[in-house]
Structure prediction request, 272 residues.
Amino acid sequence: MRKDIEVRKVTTIEDIHSMQKLEKGIWGMEPIPVHQTITAVKNGGLIVGAFLEERMVGYTYSFAGYSDGQIYLCSHMIAVDEEFQTRGIGMLLKEEQQRLAREMGYRLIVWTFDPLESRNAYLNTSKLYGVCYDYIVDCYGKMDDGLNKGLPTDRFQVAWWIDSPRVMEKWQPNLLYSRPFTIRLSDDLYPAILLPETNEWIQAEAIEVPVPKHIQLIKQHNSQLAYEWRMKTRKIFQQLSEAGFALIDVCRTEESVQYYRFCKRSIIPLQN
Prediction:
């Protein structure tokens, strides 16, 4: 955690222009128009910025959402300048987002992330205590930016029940996790996943699923293997979602993969 970083709500046009510059530099695409972001902020949305003196080095952008009778805050983007990544700024942004969202009356914040980006999964579930029980196939269609180009844009949706025992008490279950999936190394020494011949694995009470530590590196050097990871894990995650499981944690290892931990959604204390 950096004491020299100020994290605060963004409301001015000048700060939103700074957000645009950062957005374009990180994502490599045209930023969201100012008239859209400022309108969202004035109508239930929220932008939080991280600043080193006057320089914006990270932000979250959220807008109001509604579905099936539930009002929530949709956290559409979180970004940190490459120079400042792995310094805990993402966590600072989410904590301030949580605090401000609670003041605004929200109890649920949702967002999406690429299921193959294990670092994001770790932040979302192991540090923020969000849960993922919705898997969306090709959520945004074809995207050509550096992070998304070459793979279908499948996404997990995170549900962050910010006042729930799961979040407030940092709830994790005491379960015995099954590891039904085998990892082998490809000819170029990248990890590949092998699926079991039957679906009996879905009967376990808790399951661990391997995901590569560095999917962008695999995509860069072995695009076919990256695509296989997308399609095979899509099948696994869809089966887990349909069977009532939720992603709740990431088991970090010294291996070439991390393990996503799933348990039954029904046992997770998501609301007071």
In short: The radius of gyration is 19 Å. The mean pLDDT is 93. The helical segments are 13-27, 34-41, 89-103, 118-127, 165-168, 215-221, 223-242. Residues 165 and 171 are 7 Å apart (CA to CA).
